[in-house]
């Protein structure tokens, strides 16, 4: 499964394009976000990508969950979003 990392500085349209491309190919993608700004950009990207894949007859679902990741040798709590077609 492809894993995309989203930051607070990520462009939601660019992330949405990458997300749509991966969903069309692999059917499942995991997005990871640390912090409120990154979560905000991730949610916007998911909403935008639904419009990108709709002409292909796809509808997306999102399953959020917490996960622990390591950044610069430190354990951090991130939110992961599993996105797949319905």
TrEMBL record:
MF GO annotations? nucleic acid binding
Q: What is this protein called?
A: Stage V sporulation protein S
């Amino acid at each position: 499964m492809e894993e995309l990392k989203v930051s607070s500085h990520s462009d939601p349209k660019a992330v949405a394009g990458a997300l749509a491309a991966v969903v069309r190919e692999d059917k499942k993608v995991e997005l990871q976000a640390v912090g409120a700004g990154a979560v905000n950009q991730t949610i916007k990207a998911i909403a935008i990508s639904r419009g990108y894949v709709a002409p292909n007859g796809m509808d997306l679902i999102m399953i959020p969950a917490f996960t622990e990741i390591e950044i610069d040798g430190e354990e951090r709590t991130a939110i992961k979003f599993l996105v797949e077609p319905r």
